Amino acid sequence: MLFAVRMDVVLPLDLDPGLRDELLATEKAYSQKLQREGKWLHLWRVVGEYSNLSVFDVSDNGELHDLLWNLPLFKYMSVSVTPLAQHPSALAG
Amino acid sequence: MLFAVRMDVVLPLDLDPGLRDELLATEKAYSQKLQREGKWLHLWRVVGEYSNLSVFDVSDNGELHDLLWNLPLFKYMSVSVTPLAQHPSALAG
Amino acid sequence: MLFAVRMDVVLPLDLDPGLRDELLATEKAYSQKLQREGKWLHLWRVVGEYSNLSVFDVSDNGELHDLLWNLPLFKYMSVSVTPLAQHPSALAG
Amino acid sequence: MLFAVRMDVVLPLDLDPGLRDELLATEKAYSQKLQREGKWLHLWRVVGEYSNLSVFDVSDNGELHDLLWNLPLFKYMSVSVTPLAQHPSALAG
Amino acid sequence: MLFAVRMDVVLPLDLDPGLRDELLATEKAYSQKLQREGKWLHLWRVVGEYSNLSVFDVSDNGELHDLLWNLPLFKYMSVSVTPLAQHPSALAG
Amino acid sequence: MLFAVRMDVVLPLDLDPGLRDELLATEKAYSQKLQREGKWLHLWRVVGEYSNLSVFDVSDNGELHDLLWNLPLFKYMSVSVTPLAQHPSALAG
Amino acid sequence: MLFAVRMDVVLPLDLDPGLRDELLATEKAYSQKLQREGKWLHLWRVVGEYSNLSVFDVSDNGELHDLLWNLPLFKYMSVSVTPLAQHPSALAG
Amino acid sequence: MLFAVRMDVVLPLDLDPGLRDELLATEKAYSQKLQREGKWLHLWRVVGEYSNLSVFDVSDNGELHDLLWNLPLFKYMSVSVTPLAQHPSALAG
Amino acid sequence: MLFAVRMDVVLPLDLDPGLRDELLATEKAYSQKLQREGKWLHLWRVVGEYSNLSVFDVSDNGELHDLLWNLPLFKYMSVSVTPLAQHPSALAG
Amino acid sequence: MLFAVRMDVVLPLDLDPGLRDELLATEKAYSQKLQREGKWLHLWRVVGEYSNLSVFDVSDNGELHDLLWNLPLFKYMSVSVTPLAQHPSALAG
């Protein structure tokens, strides 16, 4: 079941650089684990913004919430979720 | 080069049913031709709305504009375009 | 799996009264069938507006889209969908 | 008398972790007491956000205001209230 | 129990003048009956707009919805409702 | 001459509790003085928000501005003003 | 007493040209009469839009509403009103 | 050449009172110098807000930008600019 | 003196095709005359929309308003104007 | 390939003046290097705001993102990007 998710990140201007690097490394590892598991299906940078557009493939709403809630950067993000369905003109099933 | 595109369709309430069917068939054929050519990469229905979220893979801005402008339903749509780039945490290149 | 759905209805001012009555009766029957099946879990009127706030219980995004798309009043509505999950403080599971 | 209430929480990034845990525990207890009393009828998490969608069943506007005003997290929330009424197509009374 | 209600009216430009006069007379009579009964507590014109700001005093949400739904101009209006409560600094009870 | 005024209050999270109590007491006294003088005609709490909806009866725009500007909580508020006039359907003059 | 007023005009695309000319002439005469009387103090075109920004000098809210309500183009306009007061740094009284 | 300019001021809550008084005095002097030179044509307080609506008469866009950029309070303001032109119904040239 | 102008076009769905072609040809000729005169400095299509982003070089606000007001498509457009000035980091004068 | 980019800058009020000057000098040098290379095609100040409207000429989305992401002021900006295409009425190719 697919969901489009847009994440907009605002890091505090005075975030400690060491903590920042650690956070970003943890976020990357977390994201890549989910990509390898096939749950974080697409991950694109929005040009010119500290934002991404992603597509998740999960078994239900609860799983999606847990994945997002546990993002290492979650408390620095605003997140919006759009549920997707099969389009009648889409070739792919 | 990837772009996310959201299309929201509003058909006139008094559109002739025959014309409507014809338009939708043309739109579907047009969309599937572009999907087969690898230019209309993803096409998802937004749940509960007469809308889609799509991703296009084109060689430049001009090609994207031409593809969208020539959509059979173009004059019944509002369209918004978001340029995408490679995300540093994305596994896929 | 639960989704909150808000539907805002705008009927054309010149809608034929007979057609209008028929549409509303069909909509009511459709809605009550889904309520009896346990899919349209809650249906509330928003005070002062031709709108409702509903909660659906469906097996996936695709089922929700089909239920909404087939609403007899769908083409007269704007619809917005909010996916819901279990809240950690909620008593009910 | 029913009201839909959406609460969006923003905790300060530098909130003391001990205080935070205490606040959340108090909020949970407060919420569950009202749920047990039948006043906080529904409590759902909005997927991907630090937000909930709730339905309250209270005797009047004043009671609703007091319940919300006394939420332990009230000063960290923005709250919006939508009065609900019986829908003519709803099976439940 | 008090509610602030703002009503914004848009009459169709081609509304038959006779029908228009009749509608406005019915609306006025309806409004004045509710004012006399003490349910439509305040009725003010918003300066420069075809709009009013009103305060209703009703026994519950359902009564308010019925009063608004039955406004002769209801289908030409957009309506927004704000529930009110006693303010701790207000002299009047 | 009547004006509707909505005031939304945001107190700093770290406001000193003693200062806060003093501010609120001053605000209450200020508000009640104006109510007794018949200038602050109505004062209602907006349910679920740290906000009020008020109606002022003043001799001109300048007087209204001075009353609002001197609110003890003014620098913690956002304020919006709507000029009101006699409604042709209102019973009260 | 001064008020800033912005008026945005939308004439129906199919308005009869003779009626249109008549309306615009009546509007101009109405506006110039009020300017000569000193009530419509300033009248500026907003560049690139069928809109104006005006300042009115009236004795009270009710007079302003009547002046605006009786604009020949009123039913083709959206109007927003901003009450003004003496600025402490202004040289003019 | 005329421009309408709206300035909304937000002073930091913890601004040093001495610095604040100095800033406001400098702002007032700056504003009155421009008024005397005929460049800051009108300056009105927006009722109930820490805002003004102004009209500037300058020789070009660049001059307007320099005047605004050098406002002593500029870094505490949000500013919006509306270019104005002669209105065909205006008596004044 | 430079201004950025965004124009969004909405042609009526039932516009006569002959009239439409004539309008578009007149618009094109009008636009190209102004480009040749150096007044319509830049003209870009916004990708995926019936819109353009333009830059005009005019002697004053009044000239810009006249150029826009006389666009053959003016009554089918919404237009927004942003005055521009020399940027301190720009190489070009 | 052209993109319009609007950048709105908010510097922290307590930014160290030395750091601020250094940042602005670096930003200017960065911007002028890109202008000289023909990638930052236009750079205009938005009148009355700490903002610019720019046009970039880049080979693809990724290049644009990298240029913007590396702006010395990037973390103090909000940025919005609009892809542009050749307009059929434009004289320039």
From TrEMBL, chains A, B, C, D, E, F, G, H, I, J:
Keywords: Aromatic hydrocarbons catabolism, Isomerase. Its EC number is 5.3.3.4. Signal peptide: none annotated. Residues 1-89 form the Muconolactone isomerase domain. It is an enzyme of class 5 (isomerase). One of its GO terms (molecular function) is muconolactone delta-isomerase activity. InterPro entries: Dimeric_a/b-barrel (IPR011008), MLI_dom (IPR026029), Muconolactone_d_Isoase (IPR003464). It catalyses: (S)-muconolactone = (4,5-dihydro-5-oxofuran-2-yl)-acetate. GO terms for biological process: beta-ketoadipate pathway. SUPFAM superfamilies: Dimeric alpha+beta barrel. It comes from the Bacteria. Pathway: Aromatic compound metabolism; beta-ketoadipate pathway; 5-oxo-4,5-dihydro-2-furylacetate from catechol: step 3/3. Belongs to the muconolactone Delta-isomerase family. NCBIfam families: muco_delta. Homodecamer. This is Muconolactone Delta-isomerase. It comes from Amycolatopsis carbonis.
